[in-house]
Amino acid sequence: MAENQKRDYKSIRKIRTGDKGFKDLATSCVAFANAQGGILYIGIEDNSLTPLENQTISQDEVNDTITRLHSLCFNVSLTASELIQHENGGQYFKIMVAPSLKSIATTSDGKIYLRISDKCEPVRNEDLQRLSIEKGAYQWELLATKYSLADIPVENVKKFANDIRESDRVRQHVKQMSDLEILEHYNLIDGEVVTNLGVLWLGNAKQRSRISFPITVQYIVYNHLEQKVRKVDWHDNVLNPKELLLDIEREATELSYSHEFPDGLFRKQIRHYHPKVLRELLLNAFAHKSFTISSDIMICVYPDRLEISNPGGLPLGVTKDNILHQRHRRNPYFITIMSDLKLMEGEGSGYDLIYELNGMEAKRPPFIESSFNETKVTLYSDIQNTDVLPLLDYTLNNYKLSQKGYIAFGAIAAETKIQATKLSSYLQLSDDERLRSYVEPLLRDGIINKKGTKKGTTYYINPKLIANSKANIKTSLKTIEPYALKALIMEDLKYHPQSLLSEIAERLPDVEKADLTSMVYSMVDNEIIGEGSKKLRKYSLK
Fold it and tell me: Which tops the pLDDT comparison, 328 or 383?
């Protein structure tokens, strides 16, 4: 299994090369402790995820590792496993790092790190307050309340346990547990005492109202003048999170409106907001709410957009520019329950689904804003290019793509033609290698074509696919071939000599500016001449 938020592999050399290796291990331990805990596998090679053949480790090395690490990091709880024998004969061991719920873990030289996805990131001074709040959020779920299990309605316990047993995401050994054991497994109780998480799921209205702070929601509808025309709120704490979600979906009738388009002899309907996208955004608001802030989840519906905001900024290390790839959970035990009840996608896959579904309906990706106290997601209802809808339908019905493939294809189809740099930005990718995993299957199946190399690479929809789909996509100069673009520029300069590049671009608005600039530069001293310098350079035929 690959490295992730709670798993890291380290070569045996880390404990056999002196101080440098141990400092690196201490960094990982501190990062895990400041997040949600994790496991260090010592003796596993990164490139193979296995130990070296016939590798041997002594128990003294294990004991010495724990002792050294305890001296190199503070507020970190470490436990080592017994030596483990791999099938190739090599030995390795695990170090379990518990989350530091009540204090901030540091290295012995005072540095602070946080585990984000599969990396250990340093925490800046300005992020310390946010880290403290994040740790308070982790602790909130497990804090004991004044209620005992005897105070909880018996029917609520039975209903929760039955819901868990009926889910096909729950492992068989969990389904076979007693009701009490299931509550313990999901951290709803601590002994006979109910936790905050337990009250949230199992308590009655009065009990939920006594915890700081339960989930409260406002749903507000605005007209074209942004005047409030309808409002529903959930402040009475009667419902548990699952019931609350289902009730919001029932009440939010405005979110079920649809666009209608001709489709042969029939009419095709596309909802303003895909129901799976809606559920994912609502559940994200629930799951990533900061329970240490007293504020409502706001669902604001406008004629052209939907805004959903929740208390608390994005988790530390996650931004609007990396949300597709960073994995970080604010309320991990709450999310586990939601996932096991099949209410939400698996860990970290929610925004992938949103990008996929929006892309395959020719809609814009969500717009995300995050401040210290609030995260707001805006979803627009309009379809960017209705001409590509038959193309998207044809591809969905005739090709089986991965989620990455659908996300990339939706982005390319919306533009018809897109530069690699722009596509990388849309997909929040930092290098060409990662982009390749999105586009290579599309190229292999003949769904898209490309031209150019490296940063000059451009991807566009295969014309054969457009023809087969019978999509009535308007002819555009975006995909014009280089020889035709050269002829077009020469024809333009024939009638408009002494033109600035910006003037040529104004007369050829459908041509990509980058393609036009590159072609004009390549024609200088061959087909055309340039006079002047930089932005004031004027072009004419030779």
Answer: 383
